[in-house]
Amino acid sequence: MSFDQIIQSITVFALPLLFAITLHEAAHGYAALRFGDQTAYVLGRISVNPLKHIDPFGTIIVPLGMALLNTGFIFGWAKPVPVNFGNLRNPKQDMIWVAGAGPAANLVMAILWAIVARITLELGGFGSFWWLMAVAGIQVNVILMVFNLLPLLPLDGGRVLAGLLPSKLAWQYSKIEPYGMFILLGLIVTGLLTPIIFPIIQMVMQWLVVLFIT
Questions:
Q1: Category of 127 on φ-ψ map: left (φ > 0), alpha (ψ -120 to 50) or beta
Q2: Does residue 1 carry a pLDDT above 70?
Q3: Cα 114 to Cα 124: distance, rounded to the nearest angstrom
Q4: Torsion sign over Cα 40, 43, 44, 49
Q5: Residues 127-182: pLDDT tens digits?
């Protein structure tokens, strides 16, 4: 991969990635505020300013590394917005909405980027910078949404599942949270996650293409 191609990849993915991770986290904070927890609000994390959400490793190092390795897409994450679930008016039920707000924000952004892609296509801009950026926006948001909905704590999907389970089962399930990221890393390294997650990502992207682009 040439230097020019690396720069193009970074340029195309930078804005969609920043929007994706920033609004994902801000959505968590806003939902938490609506359901009674002011932690993120007090700390100034309900913001669309990317600087308030940047994680040096997840927002800068990982995306740059993926660009240099020519992975075909760029992925990353931001600092998690702090949420004190004990402050929610109905912690077990409200946790579902707070956790689901992030992936929901990514779905909305994926749809908006798909609309941008359709407009660009109508204007004869297939293959242009804006077309490539719109496609990158769809990819990044769908990947973030599907990945975060995996039913494994501390991911959003894990919190949604914990909120849906009966209290006793939810308490037992919550015990895996300290080991959740290690389990996730193991699934990624061994390749066990790929055949599970990529068909879902492809299905969602095809759905967006059919509904909004073609």
A1: left
A2: no
A3: 15
A4: negative
A5: 899 999 999 999 999 999 999 999 999 999 999 999 999 999 999 999 999 998 88
Catalytic residue among 12, 22, 23, 25: 25
Q: Is 25 known to be catalytic?
A: yes
What pLDDT sits at residue 71? 61
Total of domains in the chain:
1
pLDDT of residue 103: 97
Question: For residues 153 and 150, what is the distance between their CA atoms, to the nearest angstrom?
Answer: 8
Q: Provide the whole-model pTM.
A: 0.91
In which domain, by residue range, is 83 found?
A: 3-213
Identity of residue 189: V
CB-based contact 82:43 (threshold 8 Å): yes
CA atoms of 212 and 209, how far apart (whole Å): 6
Q: Which residue has the tokens 């997650």?
A: 197
